[in-house]
Amino acid sequence: MQNALLTFLLTSSLWVMSSLPAEAKDMISIESKQQADTLLDQLHQDASDANWDSYFSLYHANAIFLGTDATERWDMKQFSGYARPTDGWHYEVKSRQLLQFDNTIVFDELLESASYGLCRGTGALQLTDDGWKIVQYHLSIAVPNEDAKAVAKLIKEN
User: Fold this and answer.
1) Are 126 and 132 in contact (CB under 8 A)?
2) What's the pTM?
3) Could you give the CA distance from residue 127 to residue 81 in angstroms, rounded to a whole number?
4) Sign of torsion, CA 42 43 46 51?
5) What is the rounded distance in angstroms from the CA atom of residue 102 to the CA atom of residue 86?
6) Fewest Cβ atoms nearer than 10 Å: which of 3, 16, 47, 80?
């Protein structure tokens, strides 16, 4: 079952990537870069402040959040139910890369967390009538290659 799911996810990812325009805009417009940076910086600030109304306004209504646990694939209603009872979380942005494909910006950022150490946030922004909105955000823990087998073994044992 896991192999079938993995095959499906990889095939789906390749299909999505092949459907994107052949050339991304290496030079994202200054305006788009500023808007994307502002949105993502606001996302992290709102999470740190537990300002959930503002935080969730940055997402598209049909967005998906993928957390660090394999069970955490949440639509906005599910994610809101998880987040709102908390006091928030803080991730410091160490670096961010943006790549624009027409009305979509894909991003990856290295984040530092007191709880989880070095993490990576990846996702996509879509330009809507209301401006840029997050359509997917994926948070993962950056596991050093030399520790990957030990971590994989721990996961397999659970």
Assistant:
1) yes
2) 0.80
3) 26
4) positive
5) 36
6) 3
Q: Helices (H), strands (E): how many in the chain?
A: 5, 6
Instruction: Give the single-character DSSP code of 86.
Output: S
Whose CA is closest to 97, among 19, 36, 31? 36
Question: Residue 41 has which token pair?
Answer: 């910086």
Q: Largest Cα–Cα distance in the chain?
A: 48
Secondary structure element (H or E) that encloses residue 41, with its range:
helix 30-49
Q: What is the DSSP letter of 158?
A: -
pLDDT in tens, the chain (158 residues): 555 443 433 344 434 444 445 455 557 999 999 999 999 999 999 999 999 999 999 999 999 999 999 999 999 999 999 999 999 999 999 999 999 999 999 999 999 999 999 999 999 999 999 999 999 999 999 888 898 888 888 888 88
d(CA 53, CA 34): 22
